[in-house]
Request: fold
Amino acid sequence: MLRRSVFQAVRVSRLNPAYRASSPVRQTSAAVSVLARTYSSPSPVRDYEAQLRGMLDQAARNVEAGVRAPESDDKSLRLIMVAKPGAGKGTLSSRLVKKYNLNFISTGDVLRHEIQAGSELGKAVEKIVAGGGLVPDALMVELVRKELDRHVGESWILDGFPRTLKQGRMLNDVLTSEGRPLNLVVNLNVPDSIILARIKARWVHLPSGRVYNDDFNPPKNPGVDDETGEPLSKRPDDTPEVFTKRLRSYYEATAPLLEMYATEYPDCLYSLTGNTSDEIWPQLMEVVAPLHERAGGYAAEADKHVRDEADDLRDTTEVNVGDKTAHIQ
Ligand code: AMP
Reply:
């Protein structure tokens, strides 16, 4: 039922007639009109959106031409999410983890953990992370390789990595040589203006990780934590200035990455668009469920129950997913 509605939306897309119902790369008509509204004036961002559409077209053409991602006997789900900072990948990952019992590996979380613990790595990257820059590729690949080694033969979602073409290529090499290439690449496409508004409204109680949002989850008393009465603060990288910088680095570094997946993994690449995680969630389920089913074991919990519970955890406390603590976005 859902599959049909997504396909129908694709059929009525006027801006992108190249998308056909058979294409695995889908965008909804609502998504396309959002793009048209957001990017109606010439800007580098508009160029990026044109580029994104070009990549998706290319992926669709490649699929039609029979290009396939590397095959594997290991049917576990190996998923990466590519997303602008603050696009809601944390929220959506939590829901996936809860519903499908996936391992969750977030490079941002691992780095924050290292920083908080005051480790060598943490000290080396602290300034970069606080300033919204990218940690050097070699460091990141080493860190991710270690994390993935702990989950051989298991399903996982890798969050926040790869962020550059170089990281993507290194990840492909590692995984393909181990016979477990990626089998799903999801791009989350949320308008910049929406993300910026969310970031401005977000507050965190740093000692506990409790997160508040002025719009839909405000503290009982403005500026203070409900449980301890201690002051709330902004995540150091949660400011409009840092966001703009992170966004720029996203456009510069991540677009080539998506292009690579459109060329080499076209049948695995999906671009999902919406203003909220609730809008994107059904699209995400649409692409994850068949793969998870194939991996053996579809958890049939009621969807709403899963969503509410996962979001509840995120809204009030840190989320323990797998053996990591997911940072709250
Ligand atoms: P995130 O929570 O994914 O937004 O990551 C927070 C910060 O950690 C980013 O702004 C970067 O400074 C750093 N970081 C996380 N993942 C990566 C990565 N794959 N490559 C480089 N830096 C990263």
Observations:
- The chain is about 50% helix and 10% strand.
- The chain has one domain: 2-326.
